[in-house]
Design brief:
Layout: H1 7-19, E1 28-32, H2 41-46, H3 49-57, E2 59-63, H4 70-83
Parallel strand pairs: 1-2
Length: about 90
């Protein structure tokens, strides 16, 4: 059975990384897929406003293209390879 992760789990992990491993970084570029859990608004749900804003100020979100992400490219390539004759 797959373990389910929530948007709060995600934002708590982001805060943990920002406070720990990336504590000295002024700005962290975060490359995300287009899941609805990967948004700035989730920080407001998990933390008080001041803390949420302090964390978000240090993040720069880069979202993968909706129909051109690495996952779509990998899925297309896998599909092409599995259809090739032996």
């Amino acid at each position: 059975m797959w373990e389910q992760r929530t948007k709060i789990d995600w934002v708590v992990e982001m805060a943990y990384l920002l406070r720990g491993r990336y504590a000295e970084a002024e700005k962290v570029i975060l490359v995300c897929d287009n899941l609805n859990t990967h948004t700035i608004g989730v920080f407001d749900e998990a933390f008080d406003l001041a803390e949420a804003r302090a964390l978000v100020r240090r993040l720069e979100f880069w979202h993968t293209p909706k129909h051109g992400s690495w996952l779509n490219i990998a899925e297309n390539e896998l599909s092409a390879v599995t259809r090739e004759p032996n």
